[in-house]
Amino acid sequence: MKTMCISKVSCDDKVLEAQQIPALLDASAVVFQPICCVNWKDYPYCPDVKFRIAHTGRSLLLEYRVKEASVRAVAASDSGRVWEDSCCEFFFQVPGDKENYYNLECNCGGTLLIGYGRKGEREHAPVEVTSAVKRWSSLGKAPFEERMGECEWQMALLIPADAFFCHQIEHFVGMTARANFYKCGDLLATPHFLSWNPINLPEPCFHCPEFFGSVHFE
Which of helix, strand or coil describes residue 24? Predict the structure, then answer.
């Protein structure tokens, strides 16, 4: 199981905009982690994907950088089928939760899905929760059909503690939790299913908290 320490950065997350996150993480020397585990031989394609994450105490700052053979952003509204697009995902299990976990999935246009529960029994976050997550994508937010040809893109999210809507998280300081980070594109010309922490299952499945890694917040 992989482990990661998530640094605390100093900023006012109430005024910070998502587009400012990459520069803030640069200034704080937060390093990137690869999402490069190809877990299933039937899906060998491995685009270049990396992420980095920090926290302010009350919010998570998450940035993805992707280079892939094509991009797609069809899902136009939150809680849609974003996993069928060029999609980066963050799954998070709050300490003390044994079976339930959160999934935060965002396509390359910034359309977001947040869910909670156990596998097969998921509850979507209400609109006031998803709308509170600030997002920025280098590709803009207008939906588009698949564009063929190599493309590089960035995405940044400011995720407040309240996004974990079935818990009351006061702060992240000192927390040790479990998480995994993914890149997928179910309906792309070249489907792929990559993870940060490896998954030992016979078929593609990201809803598997038993294969989450450990993350510790400063």
Answer: helix
Task: Answer yes or no: are the C-beta atoms of 206 and 180 closer than 8 Å.
Answer: yes
Q: Tokens 């006061």: give the residue.
A: 170
The secondary structure of 55-124 as a DSSP string is E-SSEEEEEEEEEEEEEEE---STTS-GGGSSEEEEEEE-TT-SS-EEEEEEETT--EEEEEEETTEEEE
Structure tokens at 129: 């929760």
Each residue's pLDDT tens digit, 121-168: 999 999 999 999 999 999 999 999 999 999 999 999 999 999 999 999
DSSP three-state, residue 27 = helix
Per-residue DSSP letter, 126: P
Interval 59-103: pLDDT, tens: 999 999 999 999 999 999 999 999 999 999 999 999 999 899 999
Find all residues with CB under 8 Å of 145, minimum gap 6, and list them.
72, 74
